[in-house]
Amino acid sequence: MEIKTDSAEKGMLYLVSTPIGNLEDITLRALRILKEVDLVAAEDTRQTLKLLNHFEIKKPLVSYYEHNKIEKGNQLIRQMLEGKNIALVSDAGTPGISDPGEDLVRLAIENGIEVTAVPGPVAAVTGLITSGLPTGRFVFEGFLPMNKRVRKEHLKNLVGETRTIIFYEAPHKLIYTLKDLYEVLGNRRIVLARELTKRFEEKLRMTLEEAIRKYEEESPKGEFVLILEGASEEELKQQQRNKWEDMGIAEHVEMYMEQGMSKKEAMKKAAEDRGISKRDIYNSLL
Ligand code: SAM
């Protein structure tokens, strides 16, 4: 799609993905759009200046990050309404993924401004496809909440998640996150994809227990994507059995009767759930 030049019309918002480490991963279209837009809004202008200088692109840069996103967002919208074309780039990778990009996109849509993406690297997907864990179905969790209680609650909601789970984490918080994952989700396979596309890229394929042991002994360096195996069928069955164990037999039978089953049907179903005989159910209700 060509950039609009008619200043009577609204400008466009281009979400331009940039490399997550290796500058060769910039796309031809990203370079063209960065050259053609009126200005570039960047999460970290120093970082983006390095990128633009590397590709010999001279362009006005404005900062757009978490703590100025409301004020700057409104300014950028005004400029696009006046006909300016703006490229939004994040520190690395795809804008809108674990950075303030999504707010600007929402504002642009609310103001009738066309939004288009110049796709490119995303650390989450780059980590996933090299992990060796199932890629057919996955969930992206981004950064976990900082507050310990909220974080645990959040993780509890993932206990029954069977899809591969992807997290972002900063190195100084890695060990806490690994321990929380282990405590709430048990010992699963994890791939720590470190420094993707960079010189010291590494994929550490291990169990959560092994990862904790490793990072108790050495401090993690660089950027990490964590790719965690989802819950297995066996784990799900065990979780279900634990749930029934917490529930008394009478309560279990009543639950099904409240759902409309006869007592006989409810006893049969409860026996199946618990993996015990109908006689055991009957005896315990006497
Ligand atoms: N928008 C980016 C994207 O598309 O992936 C993500 C931005 S988020 C603020 C930064 C996080 O992405 C890092 O803390 C790390 O978890 C992950 N990340 C970015 N680059 C990475 C790399 N080269 N290797 C591993 N993880 C990376």
UniProtKB/TrEMBL annotation:
InterPro entries: 4pyrrol_Mease (IPR000878), 4pyrrol_Methylase_sf (IPR035996), 4pyrrole_Mease_sub1 (IPR014777), 4pyrrole_Mease_sub2 (IPR014776), rRNA_ssu_MeTfrase_I (IPR008189), SAM_MeTrfase_RsmI_CS (IPR018063). The keyword Ribosomal protein does not apply. It is found in: Cytoplasm. It comes from the Bacteria. It is an enzyme of class 2 (transferase). It catalyses: cytidine(1402) in 16S rRNA + S-adenosyl-L-methionine = 2'-O-methylcytidine(1402) in 16S rRNA + S-adenosyl-L-homocysteine + H(+). Its EC number is 2.1.1.198. Coiled coil: none annotated. Residues 12-211 form the Tetrapyrrole methylase domain. PROSITE patterns: RSMI (PS01296). Gene3D superfamilies: Cobalt-precorrin-4 Transmethylase, Domain 1 (3.40.1010.10), Methyltransferase, Cobalt-precorrin-4 Transmethylase, Domain 2 (3.30.950.10). GO terms for cellular component: cytoplasm. Keywords: Cytoplasm, Methyltransferase, rRNA processing, S-adenosyl-L-methionine, Transferase. The keyword RNA-binding does not apply. One of its GO terms (molecular function) is rRNA (cytosine-2'-O-)-methyltransferase activity. It holds the Pfam family TP_methylase. NCBIfam families: 16S rRNA (cytidine(1402)-2'-O)-methyltransferase (TIGR00096). Belongs to the methyltransferase superfamily. RsmI family. PANTHER family: RIBOSOMAL RNA SMALL SUBUNIT METHYLTRANSFERASE I (PTHR46111:SF1). Catalyzes the 2'-O-methylation of the ribose of cytidine 1402 (C1402) in 16S rRNA. This is Ribosomal RNA small subunit methyltransferase I. It comes from Clostridium thermosuccinogenes.
